[in-house]
Amino acid sequence: MQNPTILAIESSCDDTSAAVFKNGKVASNFICNQKIHEQYGGVVPELASRDHLKNIVPVVEEALKQSNTKLEHVDVFACTVAPGLIGSLMVGVCYAKGLAMAMNKPLIGVNHMQAHVLANFIDEPTPKFPCLCLTVSGGHTQIVLIKNFLEQEVIGETLDDAAGEAFDKTAKMLGLPYPGGPLVDKYAQLGNPKTYDFPEPKIADLNFSFSGLKTSVLYFLQKQKLANPNFVEENLNDICASVQQRIVSILLNKLNKASIQTGIREICIAGGVSANSGLRQMAADFAKQKNWNLYIPKFEYCTDNAGMIAITAYQKYLKNEFDDLDLSPMAR
């Protein structure tokens, strides 16, 4: 069967998502966000897993409804198995396993990071192999060499903090509510990115480091607020624009270095931070300067979503890469 109907579930962190892949494309991709974490300034794992338990049945039902698909017509069930919060992953994995067992249908476990990369292959135009993907999220920052759909090699990654964490921690230092990354982006669009010059770490290879930048921002803010207690409020837009410009320049300078080393100009960007407007604009400018063919998924496929799990499961289906019903989260 070349065109199976796949029901995919994503529950690696705090978003519950289900998608249906049918007739060779993602037919629905429904995401339910958890608001409860805003009051705590970050994701609380136990609360996340509890909300997944509440959300997963209606989320799956909505994905089936939006794609006009009946559960009995699903040929394959898929779910995220790693990486992620163990409690959150368990909800999605156990639910997918239960459906596969009840319906006597095959099961496919998917690596969350591999799926982020393959989000670039959901809609046309799609990259040609080999290509490079800058995968940036709250927990990961990687440069991935994509040889084919299922053969991916990490050739650069963060040595400490992820780019998304740098955005969120900066937002916290500025007194912005969680999730802060999108707010930094919002205010940055109103500011001048050249107002303040934050350092770029000198890492010789293709790896990243963002801990030093976070420390630099912290000391800068402490010094400025000693002289002017209202400094952040009066200069919020310019601070956000300057920090965002530096984070993005770190990412793109490394990506450019990887492109030069490999000779590859088919370039993708994926992960939650790929929704950042500054990254998207600067990447587009880089692409023109460096003669890249640049690919960035639609916004709905940038953050955690089941559509990317579905497209990855489809590629694994074509290679007969199925899992047993004893599949466990964090297995790969």
Concise account of the structure shown:
The chain has 332 residues and is of the alpha/beta class. Helices cover 43% and strands 18% of the residues. The strands form two sheets. The chain has a five-stranded mixed beta sheet, with helices on both faces.
Supply database-style keywords.
single chain; 332 residues; alpha/beta; Nucleotidyltransferase, domain 5; 2 domains; five-stranded mixed sheet; 9 helices
Report on this model:
The structure is a single chain. With 332 residues, this protein is an alpha/beta fold. The protein is 43% helix and 18% strand. The protein has two domains: 6-117 and 303-318, ATPase, nucleotide binding domain (Nucleotidyltransferase, domain 5, 2-Layer Sandwich), CATH 3.30.420; 126-296, Nucleotidyltransferase, domain 5, CATH 3.30.420. It contains nine helices and ten strands. A hairpin with a 4-residue loop joins strand 6 (131-136) and strand 7. The two termini are 27 Å apart.
**Sheet of most strands:** 5 strands, mixed
Task: Determine the CATH topology of the largest domain.
Answer: Nucleotidyltransferase, domain 5
Q: How many separate domains?
A: 2
Structural class: alpha/beta
Order of helices and strands: EEEHEHEHEEEHHHHEHEH
Care to count the β-strands? 10
Dominant shape: globular
**Strand order, biggest sheet?**
3-2-1-4-5
CATH architecture assignment of the largest domain: 2-Layer Sandwich
Mean pLDDT: 96
Distance from first to last alpha carbon: 27 Å
Helical amount among residues, as a percent range? 40-55%
